[in-house]
Amino acid sequence: MARRRQTTGISTYYSAIRKIFNLESEILTGVLPHYGERGRNDEERLKDFLLKVLPHKYGIGTGFVVCSQPQEPVSNQTDIVIFDQFHNSPLYRELSSDVFPIEIVYATIEVKGVLQKKDIKQTLDGLGKIRNLAKKKRYVEYGSMPKSSENKSKLVVSVREYHIDLPPRAFLFAYTKKGWRTLEDFGEFLTQAIAEFGNAHLHGIIVLDKDWFVYQEAYPKEGVKLHCHDNNSLLRFTNKMFHDIQSVPMGIMSIDAYFKGFLSNQ
Fold it and tell me: Is the pLDDT score of 91 beyond 50?
């Protein structure tokens, strides 16, 4: 096939990437005999894509989200966590998964090889836990102040703690689905499920093989309002993700909030 002289354009590019995703998931992932490993393989393919398209200040990991209050429940294990690795880092890094302070999380993505109705409800339940953790976010800002009123020329570091309650963005990435004959059926089910759980918000859902992309509008006048599309799904997903994570304010997490109780000199 002769190479085109004109550029194919961004829409064509993302359409091709979507087809590659589908082929890899259907054929290459399908050679794995263990279902759990197939799921992990699908997650790794998405991680590889995100590493290519996101700026390097965004880290990509897998694991659990926690807050500084020990009595608060830890999140479910999250397939993909997009986190700040410019000012912050996970609390723990282990071989299979990491532990992320809620303060450093930009977004979470649940990945499904085959999306089913039960997966939607499990995802919404997990998102509710993460949104509750976000109410405990604590950051610090460093400055300087006189050590004493007697000698104002001797400056020491000052620390001001502040709070940001905005929860991380939440996405669901599915390679294919089981059920829902049409996009309209899918949208109706999502609307009912989101209304049922209440304390959850989905910033974007993609079903690759159907080329569906759906996102939830923030604070509509009443009820749950979804925007549903059946074209350019991967491009729409990437565009929405860029907007959403870059609108999340990020600062330096209060490490004292996590460590202070364990340090004898504090």
Answer: yes
